Amino acid sequence: MSRFFRGGDDSSTESSSDEEELYSGSEDEAEKKEAKAEDSSSEEDDDEAEEDESSDSDTGAQKKGLSRFLLDQDSSESEEEEIEGTTKVKSAKDKRHDELEATITVIQNGQKISDWGSIANELDKLNRQVVKLQDARGKAPKPYIKCVAELEDFMNETIAKQKVTPKKMNATNARGLNAVKQRIKKGNKDYQDQIDAFRKNSDDFMESDEEVAPAPKVPKVRFHEPTADEEGDDSGFAVVGKGGRVLEFTPESIFKHLRSIMESRGKKNTDRLEQIKIMEKLNKVADTPYQKIRVLMTLVSARFDLGSGGAASMPVEHWKAAEGELAALLRLLDTEKDHVVIENAEEWDDDEKAPTIAEGEKYLKIPGSIVSYIERLDDELTRSLQSIDPHTSEYIERLTDEGSLYNIIFQGLLYYEMLRKDASLEVPQESLNRIIQRRLDHVYFKPAQVVKILEENCWKEVPSNVNSVITPRTEQNDASHLINVLCNYLFENSDGIIRARAMLCQIYFLALHDEYYRARDMLLTSHLQENIANFDINSQILYNRTLVQVGLCAFRKGLVYDAQNTLQEICGSGRQKELLAQGVMMQRYSQVTPEQERLEKQRQLPFHMHINLELLECVYLTCSMLLEIPLLAQTGSSPDVKKRVISKTYRRMLEYHERQIFTGPPENTRDHVMQASKALAAGEWKKATEFIHNIKIWELMPNTDNIKSLLAKQIQEEGLRTYLFTYAPFYDTLSIATLSTMFELDTRKVSAVVSKMISHEELAAALDQVTETVIFRKGVELSRLQSLSLTLADKASALIETNERTLEQRTQGSTNAFSRKDGRGGQRGGGQRGGRGGARTGGNTQRQAGGTQFTGGALGAAVRG
Question: What spans are recorded as compositionally biased (Acidic residues) (predicted)?
Answer without folding.
Answer: 16-29, 40-56, 74-84
